[in-house]
Amino acid sequence: MARAFTPKVLTANRLIEGDVVYYGQSGDWVLSHDDALYLTDEVQANELLAAAHKQVDLLVGAYLADATLEGGKPVPTHFREEFRTRGPSNYAHGKQAEV
What we know:
The structure is a single chain. By secondary structure, this protein is of the alpha+beta class. It has helices spanning 42-53, 79-84, and strands at residues 8-14, 20-23, 29-30, 59-70, 73-76. The chain contains two helices and five strands. The radius of gyration is 13 Å and the shape is globular.
């Protein structure tokens, strides 16, 4: 039996910088999970994922990550995705330096 679709966000890494990015509500790739498009439609999610896989000059490793909606913003449901929202972990730079 197929599993029921649960809400997702589309995420990947930028090819050049390596930044974690999310497909945003604006239709662009954004750096903040808070600005990610909250996907509740499986067909739309799979279409956006297929389009992301074609952006080989911009992205690497695109996939759909589980999310919930809290306060009108998508929130990761898995610790791996929560960890990715904070950026690289080897030392404070990028998103971590801003905290």
